[in-house]
User: Fold this.
Amino acid sequence: MRDWPITETEALAVQDLLRARLLDGPAPADPATFAGVDVSYAEDRLAAAVVVLDSTLRRVDQVVVRGTPAFAYVPGLFAFRELPAVLEAFERLTVRPDVVVCDGQGRAHPRRFGLACHLGVLLDLPSFGVGKTRLVGVHDDPGDRRGDRSPLVDDGEVVGAVLRTRDRVKPVYVSAGHRMDLDTACALTLRLTPAYRLPETTRAADRLSRDALL
Assistant:
């Protein structure tokens, strides 16, 4: 699609334009459905998966779209590689989710506009990111118990939280996206991690995207 950025300059301009549309809230008080988003790669192919879970964490919808990366690999602009396929997957859903949970970052991004922010703005849905690793910032270690957290700080700004989802297990990195605040993002992350370190949304989307490339 030619209207998709093809140069770093174009992509940075799009980020600046969309970042101005980010909202901190209000976050949904009691969402009934959650969409997990994950993308897997195999050489020059990718598979973008969206899985929708209800409040009991039962799967109610899923879509996977196979394709190729839509943008070169540029640090800080990774979302541009995946979003065309991810957006197509959302268009095919029969259930519109209340919240989008990305395997990646929201505000915890060098330009404060990670995948969760970008996708949330384009879909106009509440969104946040739960990353397995840190992209920016510094932090103290949170306590050892589930629910313990510490601020993730970058250039003097709190951009996320380092959250323990299992006792004495490596924490995750939570950051708000669009129409979301950090406290709600952390509470929802705990709601989505009843048994494992990562949210059930991420686990389901990861399996679906990986299976699509076999």
Notes: The longest strand covers residues 33-42.
